[in-house]
Amino acid sequence: MSRRKVRIEPREVRGRKVLRLYVCGITPYDSGHMGHAFTFCTYDILVRFAEAAGIRVRYVQNITDVDDPLFERARRDGVDWMELAESQTALHIRDMGALGWRPPDVMPRVSEEIAPILRAATRLNARGYAYQTNALYFDASRYRGYGRLSRRSRLSMIRKLRHEGLLGTVGPGAKRDALDFRLWQ
After folding, report:
1. Domain with 55 in it: what CATH number?
2. 4 burial type by CB count under 10 A (0-12 exposed, 13-18 middle, 19+ buried)
3. pLDDT tens for residues 120-150?
4. Where are the beta strands (DSSP E) in 24-180?
5. Do 101 and 125 sit in the same domain of this protein?
6. Which domain holds residue 16?
7. How far is the C-alpha of 129 from the C-alpha of 141, rounded, in Å?
8. Model confidence at 49: pLDDT above 70
């Protein structure tokens, strides 16, 4: 993550060259939008291009089916959050399919990966990169390069969070700094 062009090379996996690609997927609480379509179609084109060049691609795109926006929408609509996640995921796959998109090889759901997520959060906490208040937060001040890849200043990142309604509460019993983010609640 140097902001420099680097040559992407497939890696040897069980005797075959494979390009591994991970793309952050949807939080299935509402129907998709043009931003979703653009992102996922762009990566679909990249996968097809690589395959046309004879490169095997292992394409993974997650589904964040455990998250506050999903729980809030389910509560608002009086539906089970798991049913909402399932129906919106199916809608996403159908809508993207109508655009000619091929689903990724694997679409893991956060709800199926809770144990490894907890292990990673626990390791970050044990190494001093996280702290516990009303939740477990990542301590952004412990990572000196935080914001470097996006070329955003601290103030710019805070303004963006505020604009998107994602700033959260800073203070006793909450996060220590505006840029800290919740790892687990």
Report:
1. 3.40.50.620
2. exposed
3. 999 999 999 999 998 999 999 999 888 888 8
4. 56-61, 130-132, 136-138
5. no
6. 11-112
7. 9
8. yes
